[in-house]
Amino acid sequence: CLVAWTHAAWAQFPDKPVTLVVPFAAGGPSDKIARDLAEALRKPLGQTVIVDNTAGAGGTIGAARVARAKPDGYTLLVHHIGLATAPALYKKLPYNTLADFEYLGLINDAPSVLIGRTTLAANNLGELRKWIAESDGRVNLANAGVGSASHLCGLMLQNALKSKMTTVPYKGTAPAMTDLIGGQVDLMCEQATNAVPQIEGKKVKVFGVSSTDRLALPALAQTPTPTLAEAGLPGFNVTVWHGLYAPRGTPPEVLARLNAALRAALKDPDLIKRQEALGLRIVTDARLAPSGHKAFVQAEMERWTQVIKDSGETAE
Ligand code: MLT
Q1: Which among 17, 171, 228, 270 has most CB atoms closer than 10 A?
Q2: Do residues 180 and 28 touch, judged by C-beta distance below 8 A?
Q3: In the structure, what pLDDT confidence band is assigned to residue 314 with cuts at 50, 70 and 90?
Q4: Could you give the ipTM of this predicted complex?
Q5: Probe residue for ligand 1, chosen from 148, 239, 278 as the CB with the greatest number of ligand atoms within 8 Å
């Protein structure tokens, strides 16, 4: 009868609001994606879905909060590639990326864009790399902390340019963007989600896209943007992805309900339109299933651990 009781108890899930934890400051790309998803999850879950930011340490503080949360399906994590890179960047990570989470499905893939303050003299990657070489490390490169997507892209950039820069960490790329627009920092490798509107508004200079395909967006019609690979960094390819996670031990009935709700939310035409207008690609492949999602993250973890080790970046 216990099994029947358990099944009946979870059959009502969710019977109170569900929280999506975002491990970065409000207003950043991860926050925007989570708020978009929260809106689209309301209908399939039949419940209020709220977003709560727990920023710091490149997203690892927010991830740890969900890893420790009650496994009842009411506290979920929206996180990106940082879940796969943090193990190579932190000696004492307060969670295990593969063992401490239930994988609910991948949400989207997003390119990043190398952007700079408008007062930079350089107008293309060739001129930029010359200025960086002459600046002897005094280039201020903003990111959202060790383990963030902007940190990873910045690391790959420094490796490709063979030049160390001064990194300036923030609690998210939203506050970093404010300083970049204000000219307090020089460069940032920001996800297209937040970079595209600023490029369109001519608030920042753009030097290249981090993925292998160009960003063919109406918003960038005035500013054709090459990929960093074609602009002079052959093989450069950083694609940021976002997934949805629950704490390990969340009941299977709840996991199935959440994965079904995610699938329904990602079919929401308004969500698709909004995200594609910013260069995001909604996941429709096997990575939408928990098994495919977990296999993908494991492969990414192995790949980026090797790349980070080869880059000589030491773990915190
Ligand atoms: C990142 O660099 O990891 C993200 O852009 C952080 C954020 O969403 O603020």
Answers
A1: 228
A2: no
A3: confident
A4: 0.95
A5: 148
